[in-house]
Specification:
About 45% of the residues lie in helices and about 15% in strands. By secondary structure, it is an alpha/beta fold. The protein starts with a helix and ends in a 13-residue tail after the last helix.
Amino acid sequence: MTRANEVLAHFLDAFIVGLDPDGKAYPMVVVAGPNGSGKSTFWHQVVKPRFWGLAESWEYLNADDLVREELGTGVRLDSVNQAALKELQLHAQSALTLQRRDLITNEPNNGFVYETVFSDPQGEKVNELEHGAKQGFLTVGVLVCADSIDVLIERVTRRAADGDHGVDVDRQRARYPRVLENMKKALRVLDLAVLVDNSMDDMHIKGAFRAVAVIQSGRLTLCVDQVPDWAREVLSSLASSNTTGIDR
């Protein structure tokens, strides 16, 4: 029986080996998942601490952080003019897109991490990963999701009630299948990826995150015995010979 902690350890070991002992292979890490999946929490509380000070040298790109910096500490987003907030969010996303592309093209000797919902319909984020690989980055995916879109919507609703940013329900529903589709495509591009399930209703419960599968260079190398439906769908993009470990 393969447990989630074994899958996570396998991913972290592969990540460290990919960097090599001197940290000379610079990572381009995409932390991706639908709104409410808990991707920020998983990166900052689970993955980043395993790299001690090394991860501090990797630039972290998150549009939400830019918006919060612009508004100031402690400002509730529901107290801000919503049209102005939307404009600020779009500006932050555009600025980080340009910064990300500049890092890929001009600074291959600097590792970086970026967050994305991963729902763009044209697959531009996947194309960026391909470009990053060609530039010599170690491309890594931390892909976080949940089986139920309703659970994700409820989390975002609770977050908005606490003064954080909300997302239109119809937009969340439309994004969900696009997120899974882009994850499928990304698995064929990334050097290393881990699929992380956060289907439990309360993302704050200790141990709610479950690393369920590790993929290296397009091959499934380890997975838990019971793979959640969303992860099973994402893994379906791999050749059948590469997914024989999944209980179908």
